């Protein structure tokens, strides 16, 4: 939008990082389930967790251009870490969250050295391979993870010792939403930082980056580690809010789903993953009510339609519409 | 530009410079081939500090390849590249940029969806070593942003600083190519056909900008338009088939019958 007063270059960049009224509206809307859909708070909690997971993928895919088909590995590491921690150490949720984030981040940092050396199809295949590897490790380590029977014995204590995770998901949603919001604030700052600018540079033109003195691989390693930390937090949130952990949390399906959500919503726009996750999860909830086995049929139609008609996702389409309308 | 910059003066001072080791960039026996195709053979170059050198030669002579070799985008099979007395042959492209060797591209290599201010700020942040700060709003780095804007203003891009790069007119994009390279504060700048694709009337504007760059900056540019080369270069290197065919002042080159045959004859008088 054109600004009537001439801006200094610094003022211009500062203005670009300011909160848009629609953003504030969006976050206010996330409080609606407490009032309007009190029966759907468990679903809302799952949506918040999945949205955060999609946000973490957005940091590497939408901003740095790293396509991953194995992002669930970090989600699963976070989920099992939190589960094992609550069973063998203690059930206080925040410390569990931190442990899960640290372990996922460690694994992310270690694999980032492989990831950062590849691009395009080889990169996708490597992330896929690492994801499958993580799944099979979790599957075979039955003594630790419970394998295909699922993890038994997660016990999450009340938050601050006060708020018990209830049957209706009220505490769960409040907890997940708070985590989503806090991590979102960090991600928003990251995107508006010099580092975020460098990631956008990598996405826009990988070849030019070395010619302006940038070490793109170091940037990618850092971004990948941060994304892994966030994904680990998501896994831990799911474990703690559902008091269970299963192989589903580290499955290929989860990696594929989160990619679909991000593409549906619009990658590289921070809110794309959040919107995509909400649409995906609500669609799953509704469609699986109609025909439980075939609900991916509808997701398939939705995906093909969105990618054909809106190459930048639903949010990209909306913002185009909005800018066209405001130009008139 | 003063009388010192006249052709004879530069030819003389070049020899002094080589003797006095004020060479900004040099190559020693630089060679590269793809299978049986030799794209660079035994190239020996010496660019004195503050040089305005042109690199000419027919299509496929290996001009861009030479820039790729010097900037590390293509590893040589043999030979060395020496920047300010330091052997940089083994360094990565970005490490060379950090030591003051920058380049531009013949085909625009820009950040399509960033605007010029963001793109140049990115390059400035990389140079200042603050591009890994993920906890800080980019807008608090006032000095870096103002430096970026100054570079844009110097290249007459101030009025389009906030427009998306891919929406800029082509000539402006060519200038942004140079702006990005300047943001790395190079000591040596290699320009690969800075006015490529720009209509002839406008290519003069781009070279005026190039000519207006600081005298400490060592320049090597590839250019096909001989009017431009003779106007802006103080020294010309003629590359043919991956080897240095000859080099000298514009006067020497234009008088060289061999050059007329391999290059000028076909291109200029043909």
Structure characterization notes:
The complex is a heterodimer of chains A (328) and B (270). Chain A is mostly helical and 328 residues long. Chain A has a domain at 39-251. Chain A is built from 16 helices and no strands. Chain A has helices at 9-16, 21-29, 32-35, 41-63, 72-88, 93-115, 120-140, 142-145, 170-191, 194-204, 208-211, 216-242, 252-265, 271-290, 295-309, 313-327. In chain A, helix 5 (72-88) crosses helix 12 (216-242) and helix 10 crosses helix 12. The radius of gyration of chain A is 20 Å and the shape is globular. Chain B is an alpha/beta fold and 270 residues long. In chain B, helix 4 packs across helix 5 (142-154) and helix 4 (116-128) packs parallel to helix 6. The model of chain B is unreliable at 1-21 (pLDDT under 50). In chain B, strand 4 and strand 5 (86-87) form a beta hairpin. Chain A binds chain B through residues 9-10, 12-14, 16-17, 189-190, 192-198, 200-201, 204-205, 207-215, 218-219, 222, 226, and chain B through 71-73, 92-94, 97-98, 102-103, 105, 109-114, 117-119, 121-123, 125-127, 130-139, 141-142, 144-146, 148-149, 161-162, 180-181, 183-184.
Rough outline of chain B: globular
- Number of separate helices of chain B: 10
The CATH architecture of the largest domain in chain B would be: 3-Layer(aba) Sandwich
Helix-residue proportion of chain B: 25-40%
In total, how many beta strands of chain A? 0
How do the helices and strands line up, and which of them pair or pack?
The complex is a heterodimer of chains A (328) and B (270).
Chain A: H1 9-16, H2 21-29, H3 32-35, H4 41-63, H5 72-88, H6 93-115, H7 120-140, H8 142-145, H9 170-191, H10 194-204, H11 208-211, H12 216-242, H13 252-265, H14 271-290, H15 295-309, H16 313-327
Helix pairs in contact in A: 4-9, 4-12, 4-13, 4-14, 5-6, 5-7, 5-12, 6-12, 9-12, 10-12, 13-14, 13-16, 14-15, 14-16
Chain B: H1 7-19, E1 23-34, E2 37-48, E3 52-56, H2 63-71, E4 78-83, E5 86-87, H3 93-98, E6 101-103, H4 116-128, H5 142-154, H6 170-182, E7 188-192, H7 200-211, E8 218-222, H8 226-232, E9 235-240, E10 243-248, H9 250-255, H10 257-267
Parallel strand pairs in B: 3-8, 3-9, 6-7, 7-8
Antiparallel strand pairs in B: 1-2, 1-4, 4-5, 9-10
Helix pairs in contact in B: 4-5, 4-6
């Amino acid at each position: 939008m054109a600004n009537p007063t001439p801006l200094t270059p610094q003022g211009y960049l500062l203005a670009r990082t300011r909160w848009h009224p629609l953003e504030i509206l969006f976050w206010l809307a996330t409080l609606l389930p407490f009032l309007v859909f009190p029966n759907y708070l468990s679903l809302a909690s799952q949506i918040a967790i999945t949205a955060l997971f999609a946000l973490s993928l957005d940091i590497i895919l939408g901003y740095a251009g790293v396509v991953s088909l194995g992002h669930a590995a970090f989600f699963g590491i976070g989920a099992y870490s939190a589960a094992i921690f609550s069973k063998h150490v203690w059930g206080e949720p925040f410390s569990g969250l931190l442990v899960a984030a640290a372990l996922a981040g460690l694994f992310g940092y270690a694999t980032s050295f492989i990831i950062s050396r590849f691009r395009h199809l080889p990169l996708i295949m490597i992330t896929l391979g690492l994801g499958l590897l993580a799944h099979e490790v979790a599957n075979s380590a039955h003594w630790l993870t419970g394998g295909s029977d699922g993890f038994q014995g997660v016990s999450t204590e009340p938050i601050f010792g006060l708020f018990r995770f209830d049957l209706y998901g009220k505490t769960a949603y409040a907890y997940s939403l708070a985590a989503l919001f806090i991590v979102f604030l960090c991600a928003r700052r990251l995107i508006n930082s010099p580092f975020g600018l460098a990631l956008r540079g990598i996405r826009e033109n990988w070849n030019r980056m070395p010619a302006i003195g940038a070490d793109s691989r170091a940037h990618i390693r850092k971004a990948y580690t941060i994304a892994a930390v966030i994904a680990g937090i998501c896994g831990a949130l799911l474990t703690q809010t559902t008091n269970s952990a299963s192989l589903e949390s580290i499955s290929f399906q989860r990696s594929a789903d989160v990619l679909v959500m991000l593409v549906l919503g619009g990658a590289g726009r921070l809110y794309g993953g959040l919107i995509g996750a909400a649409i995906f999860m609500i669609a799953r909830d509704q469609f699986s009510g109609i025909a439980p086995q075939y609900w991916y049929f509808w997701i398939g139609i939705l995906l093909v339609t969105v990618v054909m008609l809106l190459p930048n996702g639903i949010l990209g389409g909306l913002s185009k519409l909005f800018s066209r309308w405001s130009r008139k | 530009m003063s009388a010192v910059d006249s052709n004879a003066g530069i030819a003389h001072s070049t020899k002094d410079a080589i003797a006095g080791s004020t060479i900004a960039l040099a190559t020693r026996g630089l060679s590269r081939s793809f299978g049986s195709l030799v794209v660079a053979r035994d190239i020996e170059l010496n660019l004195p500090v503050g040089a305005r050198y042109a690199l000419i030669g027919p299509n496929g002579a290996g001009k861009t390849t030479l820039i790729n070799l010097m900037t590390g985008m293509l590893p040589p099979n043999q030979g060395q590249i020496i920047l300010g007395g330091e052997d940089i042959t083994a360094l990565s492209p970005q490490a060379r940029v950090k030591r003051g060797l920058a380049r531009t591209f013949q085909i625009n290599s820009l950040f399509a969806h960033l605007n010029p201010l963001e793109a140049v700020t990115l390059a400035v942040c990389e140079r200042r070593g603050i591009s890994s700060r993920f906890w800080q709003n980019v807008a608090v780095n006032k000095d870096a942003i103002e430096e970026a804007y100054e570079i844009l203003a110097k290249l007459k891009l101030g009025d389009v600083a906030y427009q998306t790069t891919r929406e800029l007119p082509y000539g402006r994009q060519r200038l942004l190519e140079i702006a990005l390279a300047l943001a790395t504060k190079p000591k040596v700048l290699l320009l690969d056909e800075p006015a490529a694709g720009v209509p002839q009337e406008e290519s003069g504007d781009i070279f005026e900008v190039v000519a207006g760059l600081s005298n400490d900056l060592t320049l090597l540019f590839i250019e096909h338009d001989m009017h431009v080369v003779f106007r802006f270069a103080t020294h010309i290197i003629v590359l043919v088939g991956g080897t240095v065919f000859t080099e000298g002042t514009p006067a020497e080159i234009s008088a060289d019958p061999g050059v007329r045959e391999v290059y000028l004859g076909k291109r200029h008088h043909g």
